[in-house]
Amino acid sequence: MSARLTTSIVFLYFVFFLAACDQQQARRPVQQSKSQHVENSVQKNQLQLAREIEIIEQWILAQESAFSETNHGIYYSFDNPKNRPVLDTENLQKIFVRFEQFDGVPIYDWKVFQKPMTNQEVPQGVVLSLPYIPIGVESTLVLTSFLAYGSTGDGSLIAPYTPIVARIYIPLNQNK
Question: 37-66 in b/e burial notation, b at 16+ Cβ within 10 A?
């Protein structure tokens, strides 16, 4: 009886082993399983970004103030800085931000963001630009949708894939 039991166990083990091999061979490595949808969405995002950058560059050329560009592709400008220092981002307690359309129509009036470096409500483009903005001066940022609210918008007034203008003010006194 033990020989029969052993034979049955070996047979079942062999069947499970073959089934496992079949399933393993049916899987494809991750790098080979790219779908056409993913490739198309990457191309679509690249085209969207190129269109937005073209719109932003045209808008910047029409402005009277000079704009600079960060390493992240964010354009910024500020008037009359009076040699104001840039505050270390670790010490930023609050900022004031106003989002606008390219024609100057406000999307949101001035909002206060507490602890902007860790606040999830602050768009990534604003966070990335804070090391360039002096305190006590209103600055203008121009963000692509990918650095603002992306493909989902903000769920309220900012539509998906909307590049925006952000007016930012970092107060001199961060404790008030």
Answer: eeeeeeeeeeebbeebeeebeebbeeeeee
Percentages of the chain per state (helix, strand, coil), in multiples of 5? 40, 20, 40
Tell me if 94 is assigned to some domain: yes
Q: What is the pLDDT of residues 128-170, one digit of tens each?
A: 999 999 998 899 999 999 999 988 888 889 999 999 999 999 9
The three-class DSSP label of residue 7 is helix
CATH number at residue 53: 3.10.50.40
Would 176 be classed as within a structural domain?
A: no
pTM exceeding 0.90 = no
